[in-house]
Amino acid sequence: MANYSELPPEEKEKIKQEALRISRLKKNTNIMVVVGSVVQIVITLAVMLALFLVLVLIFNKLIVFESEKALSIVNTVVLVVTFVGGFYLGYKVYAAVMRFAIKKFNLADKVHEELINRYEKMSKIKKDAEDNQRK
Q: What is the pTM assigned to this prediction?
């Protein structure tokens, strides 16, 4: 272990400030992960509901099926497409919302870099944030 009592006061202050910065970074990252998870769930459910309503409208109201079996098969296909498509589209919408929020509220320098890199096109946002800090 390092003996901090032998360090000059300036070095102690630098170490203290760096520890404080890392602590804030971790706290902000944890908050963003929790809030982002809730937002992703809400967005995914909303996209799934919208997709389900559109598909039900198209297949059950606009197209008339004569047999009950054909209607049952179509309803099964609608449910599968709703879940698979809802998860995919929900993530894409969520990623776009996160990119927007990170850029709009300048969060790239306030959360851990791994969280920023999780989303595609995030390296560009990080680079923009670094350019803004230099100015």
A: 0.73
